[in-house]
Design goal:
- By secondary structure, the chain is α+β, with helices and mostly antiparallel strands.
- It is built from 23 helices and four strands.
- Among the domains are: about 160 residues, no CATH class; about 60 residues; about 80 residues.
- A four-stranded mixed beta sheet has the order 2-1-3-4.
- A hairpin with a 5-residue loop joins β1 and β2.
- α4 runs antiparallel to α5.
- It starts with a helix and ends with a helix.
- The mean pLDDT is about 90.
Amino acid sequence: MSEKEKDAWIISQAKISPEWRQEDFYKSICGVKKVIAMPERQEIEDFCEKVRNGEIAVEYETHYVEFDDYGHFHDDWEHEFHDPAHAMMFLSSIVRGCHDLVILGEYAQAYEILDEVLGLEFAIEDHPDTDDTCEDEFLDLRRAVREGILPIDTDRILADYITACRNAENNAEIAADKIVSALEMDLFRDCKLRDCISIGSEEPLLALIKKVLQESLARAEAQYSKKYSKNKYYLGQYEDQEYLKRMKSLIDYFAGIGKEKPKESFLRGTWSQIQSLLNRLSYEPYIDDQYEIEEIWNIVAALIKRGGFEKEEWGVKAEILKEIYENDFFDYYGVSDPMQDLAGAICSTREENLRRARIMMDAGGEYLGADAAKLYRELGEEEKCVEYFESHLAKKEEPYEIVMNYYEKTDHNRAVEIARLAIEKCKENQTPFFIFLLQDAKNKGDEAGFKKLWVSAHRRRAVNASEVDAIFS
């Protein structure tokens, strides 16, 4: 292109640019601005200062909603955030501009700007029409994205930041610290690392990142142990546990760079589809025959029909089982039956089912614990079954009967104690316990004890007297 053609092109672009954009176009032609649609550096610095000082804030509005727009009973509070200063659009133009800077090779400028804006938190003020106040004082960028008021691509931002940092920061140790700090941010918690990071296995930076991650994990574990030793349950414990999980997953990811990746697990991939559907359901105001529910039922049915679980690694199965049990089979979302079917199908060996029982026990809950104990009994581990039920004797018949029958073969006196405890505490069917005690008294020749038990059995509503008569009349 000749100089004359270049000039003609510039003039034509200036003519078609809107009036409010012409100054930016002129600065771009002069080299003052690298990206036309991006705010200038001074504007960005002023913006960040105002956000930190609380001059630029978001407004919180919430109202109680009894019935939703479709007439369904909602009975909950709904909220939304307002952005009166249009700060989110300004912030979005900044990160889009930084992406363009990275493409242009202006790494230092992109690195400095992203470093400044990614940690911003907006003060939360009450909207004039709100019925209540927000529990939080500040809105960080992660929540702004989740609330739908900040339209940015977090995967692309993380990739831009890492690329800019690697190329702009001369000190590799500082670069590693900065990259790890970014990876630890809540904003990038759900990013797909394989799409954001391109570091070769032989690069010195990789070893430094691994070192920083290990040091961060060691510090976090030490702090967690210190808090946990003082109080088994403390404020912020869940957040600390999630942070430790994230650090370990980051360490695993970087440890796998350069290694041959194992064959993708079909079970893991299918479970990821189910997780995505469950995540969509979590945003629904109510659960009522959404198509995601039917899709989950169909996916689980097809997965069980396909089989092949014996080829899957135990680690994959354990993760799925833990998630199913800890979330009570996702019963709230209407998928309890397929989840129970899946949990019962994926274990292929006795050893795996024993591990499944342990996971059920660890997940807690009366019903899960009882099911785990019965599973132990099915697998021949009767002692573990009895151990659980003996410590959970309440008002139901089954635990007493299981424990009594076990001790009848190993410790008769203990079986008698359990039977007597059952006729005192159990509020359901007491018939088997009276039959056992009556037979015991008969075998011992204890006529007085037998007569007393006989009279008591015929007075109780929880005893089937005709069944007792059929045996001892």
